[in-house]
Please model this.
Amino acid sequence: MQLCKTIDLGCLNAYSGLIQAAIYLIQTLVLIAGFLIAWQQLRGLQRTTQGANILEFVHGHREIMRIAVEKPFLLTTLTWKRLADSGTRPSFDALLKAAGLQPSEIAIAEMFHSMLINHMATAYTQYNLKNVSKESWAGYEPDIRDYFSHDVPRARWRDVAKYQPPAFRTFVNAKISAEEQPKEAV
Model:
């Protein structure tokens, strides 16, 4: 009881503003620490998501290539170049018929090339959403450019481009246009 009587309440009132300011400061520091921890967790989640997307992309690519290995004629449709007369743009079916494929093989090739194009569109979308790193994209982009440098993929693109996202259409059409430009002599 002696202690309670000796406390000067006036002194306490004088320091109450400082005490309140100290409490606000501590609350602010705890809040900032919480934000920093949440930010670190979000960065970790982003890296995990990027890794999962790459694995999923590789899995999808592997599945598409497995189909091609099971049907060897599909592999040849990936690399046929300059089957058409210069300046003409034959249809996908016409190119494959001219190469001797049967109607059932042409139907399989249509699905196969549509799957590849959708796969590329997904990679492009994931890259634009920042779910695929620049380093990974640096490997995908030349593959896309190479794929569309061949006659059969270009013919299939003409059939399915309208079903693709506008940004991807612009991207692919720019790659095709760049490929069609005459190369300067070095």
The two ends are 99 Å apart (CA to CA). Helices lie at 2-6, 9-70, 72-79, 92-98, 103-128, 134-147, 151-160, 166-180.
